[in-house]
Fold this protein.
Amino acid sequence: MRRHLIFFISMIALPFVISSPSSKRGLVYVPSTENPTDDSIWTSSTSDLTWYYNYTPDPSSALNATKKLEFVPMLWGAPSDTSDTTFLKKVRSQIEGGANITYVLGFNEPDGQGNGGSNVPADTAAQVWQRNMNPLKEQGVKLGAPAMTGGPSGFTWLQAFFTACAGNCTVDFIPIHWYGNFEGLASHIGQVQGTYPNISTVWVTEYALAQASLADSISFYNSSAEYFDRLVNITHYSYFGAFRSSVSNVGPNAAMLTEKGKLTDIGSFYLGGSATGNKPKGVAGRLSIFGGWSFVIGAAVIFAFL
């Protein structure tokens, strides 16, 4: 309890930060078939980004061509056959081909039955993990735990997963997702650290303040970025907003690009730049199509632990 409270209190007195460079920043890559030229923004020579993931085990050609960003494969969901090792084979093939694969990410929101969740039973996930992820650890690859939703169901599922693993699932870091306010984010990270003190490293692989005003969105970004950058146990983070405001399903003000493809203040800050003054506008509904597959990010669940 005290550990959680310390994490929460440490969040309250944060200075206001506009922009600063950071090697921790990565990209949640959401390809745009309508505006493929937007990809060049993320690989520009002035960008701070150092890594990316795209919810799949296969790198994106649009980003891999420059070799600027390290690709992090993801085992998004479970195959229909738990003995299937396609993910393992694909990652090993990349390593054998000379790719720098030092991390992989586990299941995407397996406790979620919608809103982008992979909806994988914990016992199934344990079987798939041992066949596809553990062998990569033997090759020196660091493994990210399943990335849960930000609500109570995430903790319940993750505990069931570790129970089903019976000590046979290797995990090196815990990815976190969050779409609520900054105080809730700080509290959630504190609870994760308090619940799993033996897994000290945290990645924040999806986060934004959903459906908020522009002022609140910028304030949230500044506070969270400053926090992530000064905490040594948070080694990687990736803001969910690498798309135009007109197709954003977390609200136009969270997007890093305007409807015309120009960097917003948040987008420029995230890449290590200064304010642009470009204000986002949006027309997208809550259901959006990204890269040929649809998902909904519903109202954020704000789960405070005090």
Q: What stands out?
A: The longest helix spans residues 214-230. The beta strands are 25-28, 51-53, 70-71, 103-105, 142-144, 173-178, 201-207, 234-239, 287-290, 293-296. The chain is about 30% helix and 15% strand.
